[in-house]
Amino acid sequence: MLKRIAWCVLAVLLATQSLAAETSQQTDNKVRLKTMVGQMIMVGFRGEGATAAHVVLKDIKQTEIGGVILFEKDFLRPQAVRNIISKTQVRELISALQSAADVPLFVAVDQEGGRVSRFKPLHGFSGTPSAQKLGKEAVTDSYAAGDATGSYLKDVGVNMNFAPVLDVNSNPESPAIGALGRSFSSKPEKVTAYAHAFAQGLAQHGVISGYKHFPGHGSSLADSHKGLPDITDTWSKSELQPYMDVLGQEPLHVVLVGHLFHRKMDAENPTSLSSAVITKLLRDKLKYRGVVVTDDLQMGAITSEYAVEDAAVKAVKAGCDIVLVGNNLEYDPKVASKVATALIWAVHNGEISVERIRESYDRIMKLKRDSGLLVDHVSKK
């Protein structure tokens, strides 16, 4: 029995080495499979400084993750500090994380303004009006809000903001969007104008925008943090209009896919795990060629049906480039390595091709180059 186990382990190791060698031969710069997969993972973590954040520092060095996301509060420990205390502290934290990375990290945050703001005045950051309030003012005010937000994000080292929201406020009572003031307007063309202005403001400081929640969360009757909203009977094609207007246009951006269910789009899978939504609709029909990010894979819409590792594999198969695990609604210090292992194993067993991984890696690295993250970058290896 022990010999059989030993042979199985050896076979896996040999397969890993063989596939890594094969992958290296297929790529111009001989990038390892582990490195490519690592760049596809963005994770949240506990710790306000280098010592407290030792788990994510290990993930950066060993799992080679490509990004992190910051939170103000720890969902499971309401009285504990998560990542944000002050400008100086955040700046030093991000500096420590970047120093540990072989490839510069995407450092992301949800800083929409209004109620969805991780950086608050109590931390020394200026407040920003909600999208709903901005939508009632001149469009130049939306640009100014993006400009101000981009300024202080850049100052502390954040280079990606999962904002602005492109959801159309078709249901003002939507618990996840309208009721929280997260939409600019019920008119798609107005959402386009104000969201694009906000993104242009962010771009003045080199901050990448995150357009969300594709294909549209504004009509939902439920909150995807708690379960999977069924938008089959409430969603309309007009919710795609803002995406049709801004995708592929300046400034630099990613698209974050929401955890939603639309039976006519895909009768089996949530939108974030659906090739019909991500590949056929977003990539083929809307011609989007940039980076696609999942919403947090630990949200109730996903965890009610899938293990995080399984959801990550399904998301990549569907066409997502970065799998986002907030590690806050739940907390697992090993979640990054578990996701990486699941994706690598999916390649080994033929569920995901090396070419599919390479597609995402190339998109991610292009965005890092285009955004200036890789300027004068020299590998530490």
Describe this protein's structure.
The chain has an eight-stranded parallel sheet. It has a two-stranded antiparallel sheet with strand order 4-5. The protein is of the alpha/beta class and 381 residues long. Mean pLDDT is 92; it is low at 1-28. The chain has 13 helices and ten strands. The two termini are 39 Å apart. The protein has one domain (30-370): TIM Barrel. Helix 3 (54-63) links the parallel strand 1 (41-44) and strand 2 (67-69).
Report the CATH topology name: TIM Barrel
Helix content: 40-55%
How are strands sequenced across the largest beta sheet? Answer: 9-8-7-6-3-2-1-10
What's the overall geometry? globular
Arithmetic mean pLDDT: 92
CATH architecture tag: Alpha-Beta Barrel
Largest sheet: 8 strands, parallel
Q: For the record, give the distance between the C-alpha atoms at the N and C termini, rounded to a whole number.
A: 39 Å
CATH superfamily: Glycoside hydrolase, family 3, N-terminal domain
Rg, please?
20 Å
**Mind telling me the CATH class?**
Alpha Beta
The number of domains is: 1
The helix-strand sequence is: HHEHEHEEEHHEHEHEHEHHEHH
**Low-pLDDT residue spans:** 1-28
Count of alpha and pi helical runs: 13
What portion of the residues fall into strands of 2 or more residues? Answer: 5-15%
